[in-house]
Design goal:
- Two copies of one chain form a homodimer.
- The first copy, chain A, has 17 helices and two strands.
- Chain A is an all-alpha fold.
- The first copy, chain A, has one domain: Farnesyl Diphosphate Synthase (Orthogonal Bundle).
- Chain A has a two-stranded antiparallel ribbon.
- In chain A, a hairpin with a 2-residue loop joins β1 and β2.
- In chain A, α7 runs antiparallel to α12, α13 packs parallel to α17 and α16 packs antiparallel against α17.
- The N terminus of chain A is likely disordered.
- At the A-B interface, α5, α9, α10 and α11 of A face α5, α9, α10 and α11 of B.
- Chains A, B: One of its GO terms (molecular function) is metal ion binding.
- Chains A, B: This is Geranylgeranyl pyrophosphate synthase.
- Chains A, B: One of its GO terms (biological process) is carotenoid biosynthetic process.
- Chains A, B: Its cofactor is Mg(2+).
Chain lengths: 374, 374
């Protein structure tokens, strides 16, 4: 995996040009991966066995569960920084802010539908990333909290729309019936639209103690992470690639960089902008987010074939059923694991210039994303 | 109709509190209408005959057609201000700006779907209202053009999602097959989402020569006009009221104020904010927009029962088929006509404090909305 060169991703044109439509230029950045030895596709059973060994070798389980066991490198980290307490504290702040942001008002049905999915108890990784990035560059939690909530609203919207019958047609999400199963397809569609619109209202109206110039810049970044150059671009290419036998690694990377990494990038970049970060800080954190964003999806792909629906809180194995291209399918479990490790190292390298105590939450979040169990 | 009192709509709490969640408080404002004599429901044939007489009495036909005939009051207006030329010129600017804003880039399919509906040749009433309001308060067209395009993107998004099988299930829009008929339901859903997100990116990134404070305020207003306190609120209550026999006028007004008037209000208010209007000017124009917004829907309801699909460029009579509550159904054609006239007068009263030459485009737009034929 040492032959991997992801540095091209960090081209100066991405680094320095704020709010350009640069993400689409990432399309061919990972083609060097295709030079790797790609292991023969393994069976699901083999994959499960390989991945189980992968996780046990790191011995870091999901955060926000009571059986965390931290060993080795993680043990050192624990002494200086209690990640679990940090996540619980921040996730509680986010949950309270979300609960306050979308009240159960008239018309009740749409607000009920919005709140049903928004408050369904996700891990709040994106909003916590946003707040952590804000605090890393010297800002206060409150400066980033409306943006953090907006990002979670958009993430929730994408899940509601993704689950609709005309998309993934999913019945289960976060262990509960999907939005359209409870409220009907029409209301679920509108609840997604309303969450998307309200995300922008919330960041524009509720962000305090930040200059309007930084708020406008943050809104531009947030919007870019969602649309046809961001999240939606990944979804469309994903849909088009289903059932195709010749999907290449560069297409898969395009899908994931847009479908998953874009919003994680938005989370971190918004926090850095709103917290008052310099352009250089914002762009370093952007690169950090791109690496962990892709890593997030590599791990997601592995989890999909190695965990049960009960463990994931959503339908497992659906990539296999939909015959979707995934990292395990293209690289095999072992190479996927190595790729995730490499992405995690590269991500953390971006943080080397920051105060390491202040960077501890982001370092721990990267490790959490790498080693999560659901 | 003189007993109508719509002034309560103009309560000071609406007038002076920017970016509050005030629209939901309009719910009971039109209840005085229920005191009117409500004529017995007429047949569709009778309604068509009555409305035909209504329109011929005003003799103002649709703009952007070659057979405009302006008589009476409108003739005087024509001498000072050529509305048709104005609309053609502004709509051309808007069309060019929209064409430039959403280019056919990768991934092609989603951009093609976005452009298919966005450039399908609507009348561009909303963006022209935005530009006209900007110019009325002393701004330049360019200051409002990104916002004007954003509003048209959002209007287009709402049409794409409205036409989906899980909503109105419509096959025809602006005389062409609906988006999902051409691109499939999944891509149509995503094209709507992408347009909604890109609307915010465009206004945030492309608005020039306007202070960031005004841009943030405009974004807050735009978002509010779409979400669960705006457009979506109207759609949800509309869906809930289908097939009910006891829908009251106040519910109908809630639906229309939110489903139609909110985005027209957003159009005018954004133009006024970005053009540098004072708070008083912005709020007068907000009231103007609310009156014409409701009028727009009263006229739409009448057109639905009096015109053919060919004349409208969309499926006619669908309110009757869906057993939707409409103004003609509740008030009869004659009272609906009087109500539209009253709303037009009240709207134009809001413009009395402005330079009348500069206000000519908005006055003409109000008349156009009142007397349009499709």
């Amino acid at each position: 995996m040492s032959s991997l060169n992801l540095n091209t991703w960090a081209r100066p044109r991405f680094m320095l040009k704020q709010a350009t439509r640069s993400r689409s230029m990432n399309f061919h950045l990972f083609h060097s991966l295709t030079k790797l030895h790609i292991s023969s596709p393994t069976t699901t059973k083999q994959k499960k066995s390989q991945l189980s060994s992968f996780y046990s070798s790191f011995s870091v389980s999901a955060v926000l569960t009571k059986d965390d066991t931290l060993k080795g490198e993680e043990e050192k980290e624990k002494s200086a920084f209690n990640f679990q307490s940090y996540m619980v504290e921040k996730a509680c702040s986010v949950n309270k802010a979300l609960d306050d942001a979308v009240l159960l008002r008239e018309p009740q049905k749409i607000h009920e539908a919005m709140r049903y999915s928004l408050l369904a108890g996700g891990k709040r990784v994106r909003p916590v990333l946003c707040v952590a990035a804000c605090e890393l560059v010297g800002g206060r939690e409150a400066m980033a909290m409306p943006a953090a909530c907006s990002i979670e609203m958009i993430h929730t919207m994408s899940l509601i729309h993704d689950d609709l019958p005309c998309m993934d047609n999913d019945d289960l999400r976060r262990g509960k019936p999907t939005n359209h199963k409870v409220f009907g397809e029409d209301v679920a569609l509108l609840a997604g639209d309303a969450l998307l619109a309200f995300a922008f209202e919330h960041i524009a109206v509720s962000t305090a103690d930040v200059s309007p110039g930084r708020i406008v810049r943050a809104i531009g970044e947030l919007a870019k992470s969602i649309g046809a150059e961001g999240l939606v671009a990944g979804q469309v290419v994903d849909i088009n690639s289903e059932g195709l036998s010749d999907v290449e690694l560069e297409i898969l990377e395009f899908i994931h960089i847009h479908k998953t990494a874009a919003l994680l990038e938005g989370s971190v970049v918004l926090g850095a902008i709103l917290g008052g970060g310099t352009d250089e800080e914002v762009e370093k954190l952007r690169m950090f987010a791109r690496y962990i964003g892709l890593m997030f999806q590599v791990v997601d792909d592995i989890l999909d074939v190695t965990k049960s629906s009960e463990e994931l809180g959503k339908t497992a194995g659906k990539d296999l059923v939909a015959d979707k291209v995934t990292y395990p399918k293209l690289l095999g479990i072992e190479k996927s694991r190595e790729f995730a490790q490499k992405l995690n190292r590269d991500a953390q390298e971006q943080l080397s210039g920051f105060d390491q105590d202040k960077a501890a939450p982001l370092i721990a979040l990267a490790n959490y994303i790498a080693y999560r169990q659901n």
